[in-house]
Amino acid sequence: xxxxxxxxxxxxxxxxxxxxxxxxxxxxxxxxxxxxxxxxxxxxxxxxxxxxxxxxxxxxxxxxxxxxxxxxxxxxxxxxxxxxxxxxxxxxxxxxxxxxxxxxxxxxxxxxxxxxxxxxxxxxxxxxxxxxxxxxxxxxxxxxxxxxxxxxxxxxxxxxxxxxxxxxxxxxxxxxxxxxxxxxxxxxxxxxxxxxxxxxxxxxxxxxxxxxxxxxxxxxxxxxxxxxxxxxxxxxxxxxxxxxxxxxxxxxxxxxxxxxxxxxxxxxxxxxxxxxxxxxxxxxxxxxxxxxxxxxxxxxxxxxxxxxxxxxxxxxxx
Amino acid sequence: xxxxxxxxxxxxxxxxxxxxxxxxxxxxxxxxxxxxxxxxxxxxxxxxxxxxxxxxxxxxxxxxxxxxxxxxxxxxxxxxxxxxxxxxxxxxxxxxxxxxxxxxxxxxxxxxxxxxxxxxxxxxxxxxxxxxxxxxxxxxxxxxxxxxxxxxxxxxxxxxxxxxxxxxxxxxxxxxxxxxxxxxxxxxxxxxxxxxxxxxxxxxxxxxxxxxxxxxxxxxxxxxxxxxxxxxxxxxxxxxxxxxxxxxxxxxxxxxxxxxxxxxxxxx
Lengths: 318, 268
Known about the structure:
The structure holds 2 protein chains of 2 kinds.
Chain A: E1 3-14, E2 17-28, E3 32-36, H1 43-50, E4 58-63, E5 66-67, H2 71-77, E6 78-81, H3 93-103, H4 108-121, H5 137-148, E7 155-159, H6 167-184, E8 187-191, H7 195-201, E9 204-209, E10 212-217, H8 219-226, E11 231-235, H9 241-249, E12 254-259, E13 266-271, H10 279-292, E14 299-302, H11 307-314
Parallel strand pairs in A: 3-8, 3-9, 6-7, 7-8
Antiparallel strand pairs in A: 1-2, 1-4, 4-5, 9-10, 11-13, 11-14, 12-13
Chain B: H1 15-29, H2 32-56, H3 62-95, H4 98-102, H5 108-138, H6 144-172, H7 176-191, H8 204-212, H9 214-228, H10 237-256
Helix pairs in contact in B: 1-5, 2-3, 2-5, 3-5, 3-6, 3-7, 3-9, 5-6, 5-10, 6-7, 6-9, 6-10, 9-10
C-alpha cells in the first residue's frame, strides 16, 4: 500500500527554540493516525509543515505522493482543520463553504452543490443559511471539518478538533473522523489530547515530546513497549495481608510490594519487568505465588495497561 | 461518484478572483463600505455647504472651495483604502481565519493582491461620491474636467501608495492594532506638512521635503492645477513622488506578499 504521508528527518527551529527534530514517519492510505504529545511537543508545527504552511529547516516529506517541493499541489490534495480555527462571524455557513470550495477550483454551481452536500454530511443542513456567529462551538468544529473536505482530500489533518467541546460533542466529532476514513478512504492525522478516544479510533499512534518522536506504532505496541514494568493491585482478606507481603517479597516476579494506604486488604505490587512476554504474564506469576501459598484472592487488577499510562511513561509524566 | 469528483475540470475561476469577489462582497454587502461612504457623503455635503456659503461672503475664492472639497475627498478616500488594507491580513490573522486561507491552493501573492484591489474599491467609491460635489462647485468656473481628472489621477496614486503601505504593514504586523496604528500614524505624519503655514514651507529644504512626500506633493499638484490654473506639463514635477511611491510600494506589497507568515513578523 502506498504511503499517504511520508516524512523524513523533518526539523524546525523558531530562533534558538527547537520545535521539531528528526520527525520521520509514514501514514498509509485510509489510516487514522493519532498524533499525541504534551503542549509544546511539536504537534501543531508538524501539521503546519506537512500542510505547507511552514517550511522545514531540514528534511523532506511527501503527501498523497506529492513531494514537498510542490506545496501548491499538496495543498490541493489535503484538508486541514487548524488548531483554534477562527470563522468569519458575519458569513453564513453555506457561503463560507462555497467560498472555500471555489478557492479549490469549483465553479459557482459546483461549489454550491459541494457546500450543501457537506452541510448535510456534517449535520448542519438546516443551519446552512444561519450566520456563523450564531453557531455553537461544536457546530463550528463540524463546519471546520466540512471546510476541510471541500476538495475531497486524500489526507485530512485535524489539529485538536475536539478542543473545548463537551464529552458528547467530542464523541460526535470523533465519529465523523471515523466516518471520514471509512467512507471517503481518506487518511487522517488526528492531533488530540483525548488518549482514550485515540485508543478507540486510531490504527496507529505517534507520540511527540519536546520536539522528538518518542513512540510510534499501534496502540498495543506502544503500550507494550512503554509500560514494560508496571504495577498491579491485589486484594486479599485483611487478616492475610502480612502473610501475603512476606510471600510476595520473596518472589522473583515482584520488585516491590506494599500494603495500600487506607484500603484494607489491598496490596500494591511493582511487577518485575518480564524477560519475555507481557506484563499480564508477570501478574499471573504473582497470582500463582499467592495461590500456592493458600492466600485467597478477592480482586486483582493490572495498572498501566492503557495508552494514557504509556503516554505518561514515554513523555516523563508531562 | 462523489459530488467533488471532477471539480477541477468544471472550470472554477482563478484564486485571486474568488478572493476579490469575497472581499468585495464582505466590504459592500455586509455594509462596512456603504456606511463609510455614507459618512463621507455627509462630510462632503457639510464642506460643500460651508464652502458655498463662504463664497457668498467672499471669505473663500470659488477655486479654493473646489480645491478644498476635492482635497478632502481625495485624502479621505485614500485613508479608507489605507485602513481596509491595513486590516486585510492582520485582521485575518487576529480572527484566526488566515490559516484556512493559507492552506488553499492560492498563492500568497494572489491572496494579498486581491485584498489590495478590494481595499482600493473604497477609493473608487469615494471618488464617485466626490464627483457631484466637485461638479456643483466647479461648474461655473469651467474647471469641472480639470478638477475631476486631477483628483482622480492624484487620488488613485495616493490610494495605491497608501493601501500598498497598509498592506505591507499588515503582512508583517503581529496584531491588527499594531497594523492600524502604524498605518494611521504614517498617514498623519505624511499629511501634517500640508497643514503648515505657507512661511514654514519655503526654502530649498522645505521644497525638497514637499516634493519627496507623496501626500504633500500630490496636494500641491492638485492645488496648482485647480487654483492657479497651471498646465499639467508645467506641474508634472509634483506628480513624480506619488507616481514613484505608488509603483514602489505597490510592487513591494505584491513581491513581499510571498513572505506572508502565519504569525506575522519573522515567526514561522
